[in-house]
Design goal:
single chain; mainly alpha; 2 domains
């Protein structure tokens, strides 16, 4: 995979999913680094360890100033439209699967 391939694929998938922006930021491959760093920061992993994990320079504050992105910082969360496991969508999927299995048996 070439240097820009991952970013191109993520951009295309985000567009197809209708979520080209999250928290007013364009979805890019840097979201992978931001997600990992944000999770580590939330769990109080020291900056020096996050710098090492993210391959940032010793003493850099980039992990904190650029790559710590707590979800929901904006007023619109596009992922609110995604059904959560166990909600009404889960019941609809379970019903559809049961009908599909029943339909196969009947044939």
């Amino acid at each position: 995979m070439g240097p820009g391939s991952l970013n191109e694929r993520l951009l295309a998938l985000a567009e197809r999913a209708g979520v080209p922006y999250i928290d007013d930021k364009k979805v890019t491959s840097h979201f992978c680094r931001a997600g990992a760093n944000t999770d580590m920061a939330a769990r109080k992993v020291p900056l020096a360890e996050r710098n090492k994990a993210g391959r940032w320079a010793d003493g850099s504050r980039t992990a904190d100033t650029v790559y710590t992105r707590p979800h929901g910082a904006s007023t619109r969360d596009p992922l609110d439209a995604v059904p959560r496991h166990g909600g009404p969508a889960h019941a609809a999927v379970a019903e559809a699967r049961a009908q599909a299995v029943g339909g196969e048996d009947a044939g």
